[in-house]
Every structure is written in structure tokens, then in C-alpha cells.
Design brief:
The structure holds three protein chains of three kinds. Chain A is an alpha+beta fold. Chain A has eight helices and 22 strands. In chain A, β1 and β2 form a beta hairpin. The longest helix of chain A is centred in the middle third of the chain and has 18 residues. Chain C is of the alpha+beta class. Chain C has nine helices and 21 strands. Chain C has a six-stranded mixed β-sheet, sandwiched between helices. Chain C starts with 8 loop residues before the first strand and ends with a strand. Classes of the chains: A alpha+beta, B mainly alpha, C alpha+beta. Chains A and C meet through α5, α7 and β17 of A and α5, α6, α7 and β16 of C.
């Protein structure tokens, strides 16, 4: 298993920059997630790592050695494409055996390895059939088997679970993680679904060709580096309000058309506008709370309620409340809420960076 | 509104069944119309000269005869006065053999080169975006326009009336079809499948032969059949570029026109015999046409 | 609960067979006007086929469909007055938003002034006024959804059918569009029938949910009822993420008390013994406990379990535990910071224990307290 380093990679298509100075490091045996919305550059980056595309600037290293001049056939990289790309004219067995045949292994050896990998992924019953008879989940398993059977140095998965049922997606995610741990495979996973990415050891959040943050999933969730990261990771998404920032002797005041909050600290910024961010589950119901809002929609999800609220000035935000509350909210209810200072994030109005605090 | 109603999707089972029957009848009718010339050809081939131009025409010959077939192979033994006026002295075996040699060879070359070229154009954009259209220029002019310059070249190269000469011409002029048809099929193969093979370790040639080719097998078969028919029935160049040794079946057919008119019987007989290889080829390839196309359906 | 007024849509014993494959098997359903109904089930359960039969894109092999008590089973789709939103919205790519919206009206040959009025009205309501001149192909997903729905509403349909319209949208955006859709439906009070395989989506959007499996309806109820009182094993296992934990248990009467027995553990079911005994418990019982309701802590009492996998989901962590050789899922708040390899204690709360019959697959009792 190899470590992967991407260093200062930039790429443009027809004058439009797709990747802007992207760098990160993946240790051997790590499950690394590249998380970003569609069009962020994830697929391009994977194609550069696998060798199917060349970067304009920058290098890629496997185990410390540059692979930029190594053709894709020889990089020993396996990639699972978004549309799976099984060989339609070959059976399951032949699909998985293909890379081994190219390496001229003996028939006996090929047979042994194919059956081993097939049993690892519970697809023995698919070996004699053709891909067009497989279900979505089965096709993905065969593709993963084809990739793993040759023990590639690096395995890339490009949005591997997109058009699967929600339930199967969740199961396969967990299975993939267990597989990765038991085999010790270096895996890079590209997805736009942050929940899929949360099982990774570390993740890189990318948007518009730029990396916003590289950290363990929980850290990205709890300490988002930029406004984009904060709103992309988390479901429902983080609520964001545009506020005026006023310095006070005791810290600062955040002025929003519909509410005013005071905080005992001051963000390090010279700007007078900030983005106030608070996760829906951190909002609290408090009599006399500073934030007054009206309920628009209540969605009940098992043991929680997702309440859509609207402020006096028309801004909308969400609140996740436990269902155990004696009140069940209804459309039209007027509520008094509070945003606890400990749960508030402030982001720079221009750059979106998470603003550091200066205690007063 | 009435006509649109007929095209509706939800309808009662009775109307559904009625429409199905109507549909089948229409198909039979159209197919029947297309088959009439072929059936008529068969009919004439068994008719004696007296029945060739009878009006009203009858489908079943009143006195069926094999003379028309016999005279093709034994021209020196004609029977009956009309046949005696036939000035054809050679049996058709020679032209048949020529066609059987030239046409498959030309077709094979055309499809092979066309396929490889199509792959280069489709995957690597060789020759730029306009390459496919440049290739098409060979079909933009009436064939006769190329005849004179080619004749000059051929005389100089001594290729007139040679097998190679005809093969080269047939291959060259059907290349455009081969390229365009196979290009379409190649583009139907998702690129990701080829890229997966590359990452598995396959060289570009390996990818072409072990992945792309099997998937477009059906398309290649269809192209091959199409080009075969084009070459098999080609008349103008065969006439111009052959004289005695290399005449092909279409040219041979034209010999059955004498001073007194056309000899429909032998022509029909030769037509029937000439159709046989094409029909056999079509039948053999049919299996590939069906199974080949189904691989193209990648489920989403 | 029988509706007081006539239902706007009624399906009666509808069956659809494709070449000996039974896609929809004896489905009967009543929909009240103004309701948001979700057809929920895994791929291939028949939900989309059912939707298409309501729309008229397929004909039932057996059974009838009534719209406001008028028989529409074989009526062509154009004449049903039902709007359909496709999975990929099926907008006319190169036409502008205005043309997309006006399409249906132009087909009906309405005067231009009238078309203009109606289009502007609905564009205002759906916040599309600035986008009227934009080509459909350059729109973002949320705008596309609004155009797709606005387009169907312009023809003033009796009801709206939606075929997994949010399927391929990433989670962050999906929530917002769901809320938009729900709000829109509540304001317009239009009856909507929505097909999805995502149980979370159905639970949050639907007023009532129709859970389907293999062509049959498993349960029709409100989201709360489906969640708290699943009628069959399938519904119990399908609803909830992660799905309900299921254990094969035995019924025993010992020492004057009734028990559910699993491995060396047992739970007293005296309070519900009558209901259990009426359901032939000797043929096998299945115990279900939702991962969200399992009590997990580092302290006894409880069943000893090892944490095998942690899937963080942001505010919660989904744990995969190994318990007496079985794989069990649990959900804990992320703040607990439980790690792989930790040893924890697991308890099943009596009010959260659901008992099912192993043979009929139906629910016997929800909660044993």
C-alpha cells in the first residue's frame, strides 16, 4: 500500500481553472475523503492521480516517488468510476480476472485469487453472470472486487454510491470501511455527500478547485475552517446570518435586522460585517430568548423535529428539537429562542474564514 | 383530437388487441410489397422465353424449365431459338469466382482499415475535427467523375483487369461508409470502460482488441454486411476497370442483352444465384447483429 | 380512519403484470384532497409503476382507478388533469424558463395575454421572476425543481405526482428543497403523491406514508405511526436509519411469569402476555429495538458489547456493536466521543421493544411495559 502526496496541482480546461494549487497527503492504509459539491474538481483530481489526465502544474508522489511521468497502466492504481464501468461482454469472473490476465498470472492462481476476493465481497453467485443482470449494489461490489484483486497501491472511488437506494448506500458505506480496515488498503473517496465521507480517517473539503480544510471528519464538523465547509458538512446545514459587528467593552455585539446578540469575546477582524453561523441542533428554546421567530414547517423524523422558522425580516433558518419536548410545534407558532454563545461561529464576510477569537 | 386519441397510452384491452392485429397486418403488407420483386425474379428464372413478357403476368410459370439456369453454365448448348441468339460464350462460373474473391477481400480491408481509423478519430481526434468529413469527400461526387483520372493511373500501374486493382478500388470507396458506421458504434462505448481497462494495465492496443472490439462486434457485423452488399452489386467501376479476365457478376448480368432485347430468363436466373451469397452472409451474421447490440445497453 | 369526504383519488384492487412479473399486486388506496402522500419502498417494489398507472402512462392489468369518483382507469394521460414531475425534471433544455412554463398553456391555445398573466403569477410565487429569460439548461437544481413543479401547476391539475425528484441531489441541498416543497404544498393545498426510496424523506414530507414491498402495501399510516408502531417486520426494518435491530427470541413461561428469552438474557412480558399468547408464540418471535432507543453507556447494568465501527453523522454517531456474536446498531450523541474498540454496556428499554411473529411477520405488540 502506498502513501499518496499531491503537491501544488493546478489544472485548467479551456482557460477555466478547475484545480487551483491543490496539495494534500494521504498515509499508507488511510481512508481519505475528498468532499465537495459537483463541479468542485474531485473527478479531475482523481484522473490526475490515476494518470488519465496530466496536471498543468504540480506533481503527484506515491511513496515519496514522483509518478507524473509514469503512464496510467503502470501506476498500479485502481479506480471505481461513478458509472462503475464493468466490461459488459465479460462475466463477473472474467471481469475480476481481467487485470490478473494482463499480468500473465497462471490460470490456477487467477482462479484462486478471484474466488478469494469474490467471497470477501459476497459475490460468488455473480461470477457466472453478465453485468447487465446485476443490480446497482451488485455491480459496485464486482467493480470493487476487480479493483482489489490485484492489491493496487492506491484505490480511488469516485462517487461510488450515488444512484443506490438510501438504505443500501448506508450499508455499503459501512462495509467499505470494514473492508478497508481489514485489508489495510489506501483509499481515496470522492463524494458530495458528507455523510458518506464521515467514515474516512481524514477528509479534504474542496470547492471550486480550492481546498478549504483538511482534517479528521469530526474536527471538520466541530471546527469548520470556512463558511463553505460549515454549511456543506452537516445535515440540516448550518444556519448562516449576515450581521453587523459592533465592538463593545465587554466583547462584541452582533446586529441582525431581527435580533441582537452579545458575546463575551471579539473576533479578530477589521470588517464591520460578519457571518453568524449556528448549527440547527444547538439552538435552544428559552423564554425571553432574543431570537423571535415563527414556525413555518415542522418535519418529524423519528425522535426529532426539524422546525423551519422565519424571522421578522424574512430570513429563514432551521432548528432541530428533540421530540421529547412536551410541546409539538405547529405552523404559525411564535417561538422565543436563543443562540448559545459557545455554539456560535463567526466567519469573515469576504473570505469566509472562521474568525479567531480575542478574549476580552 | 381523434388521431391523438389513437396514440394514447392508457386504453382498454379490447382496443389494445385490435390495434396490435392492425399493426401486424400493416407490417406484413409493407414487407410483402418489398418482397414482390424478389419473388418475381424467382418466378421469371423458371419461365421459358415464351412467358417472359406475357400480359397479364402470371406468378407461377405454366411450363417451368431449368433452361435459364443451364444456359448460364453451358452457353454452348442453348435450347430454343431465342437462346440461340445469345452471344454469351463464357459460363458464369468465372465471373462468380471473381466476385467471390474480390468482394470479400475488399470488404475485409475496408472494414478493418475503417474500424482502426474510426477508433483513432473517435478516441484520439486524429486529423482534427474535420477528418471524418474529409473522408466523406470520396462519396460526394458521382462515381463517374473519378473514373477517368483513375483509369489513367491504373493503365500506368498496369492494374486494369487485375484482382488487386478492383479490390483497391472497392476498399477505397467504401472506406467512408466503414469509418462512419463503426465510428458511431465506437462512440457508443462509454469511455470509462476503456479507461478502467487502462488502469487495470492494458496497453491501448490491448484495450482496442479485448474491450472495444468485442463490444462493437454487432456494429462491425452490420457494417460488414452493408459494405459487402455495396461491393457485390457494384457495376460501374467493375465495367470500367475490367475487360475479360476479371469481370464480376453485375457486369456479367449486363451481357445478357442481345440485339433482340433482354434475355430476362437467364438474367433472372443469374440474379437468383447472385443473391445467394448475400443471403447466406446475412443469415450467418444475424446472430452477431442481435447479441452485439445488446452489449451496448449499459444499464444506468 | 375513514375520510369524511369523498377521496380525491381511489385505487381499487389495482394489479399490474409485466410478462408474468407481478409489479403491483392488489393495491387499494384512498387519498384525501390536500394530502401529501408518500409511496415509500425499495427499488422494484412497485411504487413507480403505481404512480405511472395513476398518471396514465401505464394501464392496470386488473382493478380500477377513480379520480373524484370518476373512472379514469383507461383514460389517456392528457385527459386526466394530473400533473407529473419526472425524476430529472424533464425540462425543455434549450427553451427559456418562460417558454417551459408557457408550453402547456400554448398547447391549449390560450390567448397570449392570458398566458402571460398566468406565467407571471406563478413565477412570482416560485421566485422565478428573475429567471424567466434564462435557458433551462443553465439553471441550478433548486430552480429546475421549481420550474418543473410550476409548469405542472399552470395547467391546474387535480393532483400532482412526483417521481423521486430529489433523488440525485446532494444531502445539504436536498433538505432545503424538501422544506421548500413541503411549504409549497401546505400553502397551495394541492394533493401530492410523492415516490421515494429514502425513508427519511418520506417521514419528513408525508402526511401519510404508503410503505410498499414486492408490489404489495405493507402499511399506510402517518409518519409518527409508521415509526412508533410498524405493522410488519418489513416496515420495522425499512424505516429508521440505521434500521431496527432484530433478534430471534423464544417465548417461555417460568416461575409464574412470561419471558422473552435470547441467549442468556430474558425480559419479563407479563403485562402483554395475553397478546403474545394469542399469536402462536411457539412458532417463533422476533424482537425489534430501534438503534436510537438502545441505552448505551460505559457503566453497568447491561449486556457487554464491543464497538466495532463508528460512523459519525455530525450531531450523532452511529455505532456498530458486537453483542454476543450479533451485530447491533446504536445511535449516540457525538459528544460522547465513543471510539472503535471501546467496551460498552447495552440496555433495551421495555417501552422500545417491539415483538413480531416470525411466521406471519406481523407486529404483535409495541413495547412490553
Amino acid at each position: 500500500m502506498a502513501s499518496v502526496e499531491v503537491k501544488n496541482v493546478s489544472k485548467s480546461f479551456k482557460g477555466k481553472p478547475t484545480l487551483k494549487n491543490v496539495s494534500f497527503y494521504v498515509s499508507s492504509g488511510e481512508l481519505f475523503c475528498l468532499l465537495g459539491p459537483p463541479g468542485a474538481g474531485k473527478t479531475t483530481l482523481f484522473r490526475i492521480i490515476s494518470g488519465l489526465e496530466k496536471a498543468d502544474i504540480g506533481e503527484v508522489f506515491f511513496d515519496g516517488r514522483p509518478v507524473t511521468s509514469v503512464p496510467p497502466q503502470q501506476r498500479d492504481v485502481a479506480m471505481i468510476f461513478e458509472d462503475v464501468a464493468l466490461y459488459p461482454h465479460l462475466t463477473g469472473f472474467e471481469n475480476i480476472a481481467y487485470p490478473l490476465k494482463l499480468r500473465r498470472l497462471s490460470r490456477a492462481e487467477i482462479k484462486k485469487r478471484v474466488y478469494e476476493t469474490a467471497s470477501l465481497l459476497h459475490i460468488e453467485h455473480l461470477l457466472n453472470r453478465r453485468p447487465h443482470t446485476f443490480s446497482g449494489g451488485e455491480r459496485r461490489r464486482v467493480a470493487i472486487a476487480r479493483a482489489l484483486v490485484r492489491n493496487p497501491r492506491v484505490l480511488l472511488l469516485d462517487q461510488p454510491f450515488t444512484d443506490l437506494d438510501a438504505k443500501i448506500r448506508h450499508e455499503m458505506s459501512a462495509e467499505l470501511k470494514r473492508l478497508q480496515i481489514s485489508v489495510g488498503q489506501t483509499m481515496l473517496l470522492a463524494t458530495h455527500d458528507f455523510e458518506e465521507g464521515m467514515i474516512a480517517d481524514r477528509m479534504a473539503v474542496i470547492n471550486d478547485g480550492e481546498i478549504h480544510q483538511i482534517a479528521a471528519p469530526k474536527e471538520v464538523y466541530n471546527f469548520p475552517a470556512t463558511r463553505f465547509t460549515a454549511s456543506f458538512v452537516g445535515s440540516p446545514a448550518m444556519n448562516l446570518f449576515s450581521c453587523q459587528l459592533i465592538s463593545t467593552t465587554t466583547g462584541c455585539e452582533l446586529r441582525h435586522p431581527a435580533f441582537v446578540l452579545s458575546l463575551p469575546w471579539h473576533p479578530i477582524t477589521s470588517s464591520q460585517q460578519v457571518w453568524l453561523g449556528i448549527r440547527p441542533e444547538k439552538i435552544v428554546l428559552e423564554k425571553g430568548g432574543k431570537v423571535k421567530a415563527r414556525v413555518e414547517v415542522v418535519q418529524i423524523l423519528g425522535a426529532e423535529q426539524i422546525v423551519d422558522l422565519v424571522l421578522a425580516n424574512g430570513d429563514r433558518f432551521k432548528w432541530v428539537a428533540p421530540l421529547s419536548l412536551s410541546e409539538k410545534f405547529r405552523r404559525g407558532d411564535e417561538l422565543e429562542l436563543n443562540f448559545p454563545g459557545s455554539a456560535i461561529f463567526l466567519f469573515d464576510y469576504e473570505t469566509g474564514h472562521n474568525l479567531a477569537r480575542k478574549e476580552v | 383530437m381523434k388521431r391523438k386519441d389513437i396514440a394514447m397510452m392508457a386504453r382498454s384491452p379490447v382496443i389494445s388487441a385490435a390495434l396490435r392485429i392492425l399493426h401486424r397486418l400493416t407490417v406484413l403488407l409493407v414487407v410483402g410489397i418489398f418482397l414482390i420483386p424478389a419473388v418475381w425474379l424467382l418466378s421469371i428464372s423458371f419461365k421459358p422465353p415464351t412467358e417472359w413478357q406475357v400480359f397479364p403476368p402470371n406468378l407461377i410459370p405454366r411450363s417451368p424449365t431449368l433452361d435459364n439456369y443451364i444456359v448460364l453454365f453451358k452457353p454452348e448448348a442453348p435450347k430454343g431459338t431465342a437462346a440461340a441468339m445469345l452471344r454469351v460464350t463464357e459460363p458464369v462460373t468465372k465471373s462468380f469466382l471473381n466476385s467471390i474473391i474480390v468482394v470479400p477481400a475488399a470488404t475485409a480491408i475496408s472494414v478493418t482499415v475503417g474500424f482502426l481509423a474510426a477508433y483513432a478519430v473517435a478516441r484520439f481526434r486524429i486529423g482534427g475535427a474535420f477528418m471524418p468529413f474529409f473522408v466523406l469527400t470520396t462519396r460526394m461526387f458521382p462515381p463517374v467523375a473519378f473514373a477517368v483520372p483513375l483509369l489513367v493511373y491504373y493503365r500506368w500501374l498496369r492494374l486494369i483487369d487485375t484482382p488487386i486493382g478492383l479490390i483497391l478500388i472497392y476498399a477505397g470507396f467504401t472506406l467512408a461508409f466503414s469509418l462512419w458506421m463503426t465510428k458511431g458504434f465506437i462512440e457508443g462505448v462509454p469511455r470509462h470502460i476503456e479507461e478502467a481497462a487502462i488502469l487495470d494495465g492494458a496497453s491501448p492496443w490491448r484495450v482496442l482488441f479485448t474491450i472495444t472490439l468485442p463490444i462493437v462486434k454487432g456494429g462491425l457485423a452490420a457494417t460488414m454486411l452493408f459494405v459487402f452488399i455495396l461491393n457485390w452489386t457494384e457495376f460501374l467501376y467493375a465495367l470500367i476497370f475490367t475487360s475479360t479476365k476479371m469481370i464480376t457478376v453485375p457486369v456479367q448480368l449486363s451481357h445478357y442483352v442481345g440485339a433482340v432485347g433482354r434475355f430476362y430468363g437467364p438474367q433472372a436466373a443469374l440474379g437468383v444465384i447472385a443473391s445467394v451469397p448475400v443471403v447466406i452472409l446475412g443469415y450467418v451474421i444475424q446472430r452477431y447483429l442481435v447479441t452485439g447490440f445488446s452489449f451496448g445497453l449499459i444499464r444506468r | 380512519m375513514a375520510p369524511m369526504t369523498t377521496p380525491i383519488l381511489r385505487l381499487q384492487n389495482v394489479k399490474k403484470v409485466f410478462n408474468s412479473f407481478v409489479a403491483v399486486d392488489n393495491v387499494s388506496l384512498e387519498v384525501t384532497e390536500g394530502e401529501f402522500v408518500c409511496l415509500l419502498g425499495p427499488s422494484g417494489c412497485g411504487k413507480t409503476t403505481t404512480l405511472r398507472m395513476i398518471a396514465g402512462l401505464e394501464t392496470p392489468t386488473e382493478g380500477e382507478i377513480f379520480l373524484r369518483e370518476k373512472r379514469i382507469t383507461y383514460l389517456p394521460p392528457q385527459q386526466r388533469g394530473i400533473g407529473f414531475v419526472f425524476q430529472n425534471y424533464a425540462l425543455f433544455w434549450h427553451m427559456t424558463v418562460y417558454d417551459n412554463l408557457a408550453f402547456g398553456l400554448r398547447l391549449r391555445r390560450l390567448p397570449v395575454a392570458e398566458i402571460n398573466k398566468r406565467v407571471c403569477e406563478i413565477a412570482e410565487r416560485f421566485e422565478l421572476m428573475d429567471l424567466l429569460k434564462v435557458r433551462a439548461v443553465s439553471l441550478d437544481l433548486s430552480a429546475m425543481q421549481r420550474v418543473a413543479i410550476a409548469r405542472t401547476l399552470l395547467t391546474d391539475p387535480h393532483l400532482l405526482l412526483l417521481d423521486e425528484p430529489l433523488n440525485n441531489i446532494r444531502p445539504g441541498l436536498r433538505e432545503m428543497m424538501r422544506a421548500d416543497l413541503k411549504r409549497m404544498q401546505q400553502e397551495l393545498r394541492k394533493t401530492m403523491i410523492y415516490v421515494t426510496h429514502d425513508q427519511e424523506e418520506a417521514l419528513t414530507l408525508g402526511d401519510r406514508i404508503v410503505v410498499m414491498n414486492m408490489g404489495r402495501i405493507e402499511q399506510v399510516a402517518s409518519p409518527q405511526e409508521i415509526y412508533d408502531l410498524p405493522a410488519t417486520l418489513f416496515v420495522a426494518g425499512f424505516i429508521g436509519r440505521p434500521p431496527m435491530n432484530l433478534f430471534d427470541v423464544k417465548y417461555a413461561v417460568e416461575g409464574g411469569h412470561s419471558w422473552l428469552v435470547w441467549r442468556q438474557y430474558r425480559w419479563c412480558v407479563d403485562k402483554v402476555r395475553d397478546r403474545i399468547e394469542a399469536a402462536y408464540p411457539e412458532n417463533g418471535l422476533v424482537l425489534g429495538v430501534r438503534p436510537e432507543e438502545i441505552k448505551i453507556s460505559y457503566k453497568a447494568p447491561g449486556i457487554h458489547a464491543k464497538v466495532v465501527l463508528v460512523q459519525p453523522l455530525g450531531r450523532k454517531d452511529v455505532l456498530m456493536l458486537e453483542l454476543e456474536g450479533e451485530t447491533v446498531h446504536g445511535v449516540v450523541p457525538a459528544e460522547l466521543c465513543i471510539n472503535v474498540g471501546d467496551m460498552v454496556f447495552v440496555e433495551f428499554p421495555p417501552e422500545g421493544m417491539h415483538v413480531f411473529s416470525a411466521t406471519t411477520k406481523e407486529a404483535i405488540v409495541h413495547g412490553i411495559s
